C-alpha cells in the first residue's frame, strides 16, 4: 500500500487519463476470494483481452484492503494481505488505468447497532433487512451514511492507492426510504409527506422524484470533491442505468463526470439485442462529446440472479459488439475472483480484440444521421422503475421500425435540446413525448420553420414539463391538429382505413384497412393538411356474428402537412409505436417508416440492398465515413441468449457522395480487405460479400 503523499508528482495521472481507458475489465470480489482466487489468472486476463483499464473491488459493503475507517467492514478472510493493492500493482505494471469500486448499499450488524439511522425503512416503518441476505441491512442512500460515512471510505482509498477514479455501484438507493431523516428532510424541502405509491399523477411522487434527483446529484458532486481534494486529476464516477441521466442535474454531471458508465449488463426477457447500442445513442443524445462505457456481464441477466454462471459466447459477443457499433466502449464484469467456468474468456477476448482493431479508425470520427428519435427524458424522469417500461414502449416501437427499414438514426435528448443540435438532422421523431415544456415546443416549431421535419405520435405534448395535463396538444399549431377529445383506451378490435393515394399509404397491397391502436385520440385537422389514414369507428369483437363495422371511416388517424419553409410534419394520434413494440405487426412498421421517409423528403444518404436485419450506424469526418453494419439476423434477436451466429450473404451499400467530393476508396475493416465499389452519378455502390457479427465499411473521399 502506497501513500500518495509520499509519491512524486510523476505518479499522478493527467486530467484526460480516461481518453486512453477504452477497454475495461471489472473484477467484483466475493468475501472469501482473498484465500481462494488466483491473482495471476486475472493479470493474464488483462493481457488476453487487451484491457487498458480495470475496475476492482475496494470497499463499501466489504473492504478488500486493511481499512482504518470505523465500521468499515473488512473481509474476515483478508489476514495480513491486501487483495485490492495486489491487483492495483499488477494492473499498473501493465500500464493500465485503475478505478476502485465501492458498494454502499448494505451494512453489517456492528454498523447497524452503532448507527441505526443509516438503515433504510419501508413504508410500514420496518427497518429493511437485505432482501437476498437478511443477516445485513439495506442503507438509506439519502442520509448520513452516504453523506458522512462513505466520504471517509472514498478518501482513504484515494489517499492510499494509485488509482485514477472511484466508481460506485448500487449507490442510488432502492426506492423511497421512510426513515425519520428522509421524512424530515423531504417535508422541509417540499411540504409533502413521503409518497406511499409510485403514482406519476400524484404531486407528492413528483416532488419526491425531484428531491431525490437533487440529493443524488449533490452526492455525485460531494464525492467527486472528496476525490479531487486528494488527487486533482482523479474523479468519482457514478454507475448509471440506461435512463439515469434523466435523474440528475446535467450541468453538474457535465462538470464532475468526464465519462459515463452505463450499467445495462445484458438482455432481460423479451428484449432485442439492439438494446445494447441504444444505450450509446442515449448517452450521446445528452453528452455527444463525452466517452460512454457499456458494462457487459458474462452471465445471464435474469431475475434468478445466477451471478456466477456463464451465458453463451455469441450472446456475450453480440452485447459487447452492438454497444461498440454505437460508440460505447467495452467493459466486461465478472462476479467472484474464482473461475470455475472459463467459457467466457475467449468470447470477451475476441470482442475486445475487434474493438482494438476498429478503434484507430472509429476514434477519429463522429456519429451522424439524417434522422433522430427524441429521447423523452422530460417524460421519463417522472416515472418509477415499475412504470418506465410502459412509458418507453412507443420509443422502442419506432426504434425497431427504423432498424427494420435499415435507416440510420440517432437519439436526441429533449433535456439537452438546442437549435444547433436539432439542425444536425432532417427529421425528428416524437414517438410519445408526453411531457414537453412550452420552450421545447417552441424550439421544435422553429426547427420546422427552418426546414426541418417532425413525425409525432400518441399523446406527444399533451402534458407540461411537470407532468400536468394540458387541455390541448401544445404542438397542435405546428402539426395542424386540434384535439377534440383526449386519448381513450384500451380499445379492442380497432382499425384504421386508407383514404386516397399518398406516399405514406403505399406498399400495403390490396389492404383497404389495417389494425389500429389500443389508445386513440380524436383530432380535427387544419385546412392545409391531408388525412390519408382514417379511423374506423368502433364495433364489437364478440359475438363473432357482430364483428363488422357499422359506419364508414371517419376522423383523422394520420395528419400530414407540408410547410412553407420546406419542412414536413406527420401526426399519428394513437399509440402506433407502443402497439408495434408489443404485437410486432408489419403494417405498423411500414406505416411508421413510410411517414418518416415522406417527412425526410429526399433519398436517404445511406441505403441498403440485401436480405438481412441490420443495426446500422454511420460515422464521419472530413476525409470520409464509416458505416457500421451489425448483423441482427438471428432467431434469438428478440430474446436471448443467442446460440450461434447466422451470417448473412451479399449486401449492397449505396452512399451519396458529398457535393464537391469524389469517391476514392472503400475498405472492409473487419474482413481487412478492399471492397468492390462502382460510382453511379453522385452515388457509390459498395459490395459487401457477407457479414458474420459485424462489418465496418470505411469510405474515403477524394
TrEMBL record:
Gene3D superfamilies: 3.40.50.880, Glycosidases. It holds the Pfam family GHL6. This is Family 10 glycosylhydrolase. It comes from Devosia algicola.
